[in-house]
């Protein structure tokens, strides 16, 4: 029995550590996933707390996993793990049954798994943790008490410091479609192996006060325009497709006139894009750093763009800065949440490929890269149609 319990706790401990580390690499990702659940349940008031809960939950998974491996405070942690896995199983079961949201984000964006796999994984974990809970008397501390305390203190400190670093300087491992090296134009296309949804045209008519549905090949034998009143026509889903969504969705850049200028930006030889989701959360330190970057860009004749979900506030925020004539584009805040895991976040694009990506905390590093680039001769590609870029300059 002791060997079986040891095997079970090693499996559970390692899985919780792995799960916690993967999500700690991107705490905002789990935070956004929690917001999806709250939006589905109509609990919008909890959205302001999701990041704190995400950080605490990720830290707990790491801490609890190590506590299980070390056999430290096993009575406490066996209770906590049992309660946590029951809660997780409820969430993954809800996602599997309802299909909302599409996945629970159990292993973050780096290891997406289906809702069914996630639910089955939690069912197995529930059985293992219940077994550990029932046989916890066989688990003894691996190290002397003092060493266990120091080990757990170090692990706890690491679990929070690591998340502070990824929240400040971007995830160590970027698994998002906007990661360095990706061609954004290509990521906006449908995958080559996409299978579209299978649908059938369905008609809805009213007869004798009741609505009747039928397809084009199954019209009622007594159908006539006098007895049947048309209500609507829609495409009924027969079989859902597979892999039929592009990795990047909704990435549309537009200015005051609403013209789509996305491809203009992505086809530029070089371009710098500064993402700011909310100006109220961005602070002010980024402005002085951006002034230095903007001066270096002007010297190289490289265009820069400010992309935000709050374009109406941009003019006020950049007034008085040395980049107050920068072109401002708007896009959906959900897109910015995926593209920019820090606020602000700055990109260097080369013909739509992400060459460099920095958080607001270290965006000044981009200046050194820009200074090493060749000077650009022109901004508008000769074959580009008119775009919404009212403040772009040609030359310094």
Describe the secondary structure blueprint for this structure.
Layout: H1 2-24, H2 27-41, H3 50-70, H4 74-98, H5 115-134, H6 145-169, H7 184-187, E1 198-207, E2 210-215, E3 229-239, H8 262-266, E4 271-276, H9 279-282, H10 285-300, E5 304-308, H11 311-318, E6 327-330, H12 333-339, E7 345-350, E8 353-359, H13 365-371
Parallel strand pairs: 4-5, 5-6
Antiparallel strand pairs: 1-2, 1-3, 4-7, 7-8
Helix pairs in contact: 1-3, 1-5, 2-3, 3-6, 4-5, 10-13
Give the end-to-end Cα distance, rounded to a whole number of Å.
77 Å
Uncertain parts: 380-386, 390-396
> In angstroms, what is the radius of gyration?
27 Å
User: What letter string, H or E per element, gives the SSE order?
Assistant: HHHHHHHEEEHEHHEHEHEEH
Round the mean pLDDT to the nearest integer and report it.
Answer: 88
Total helical elements: 13
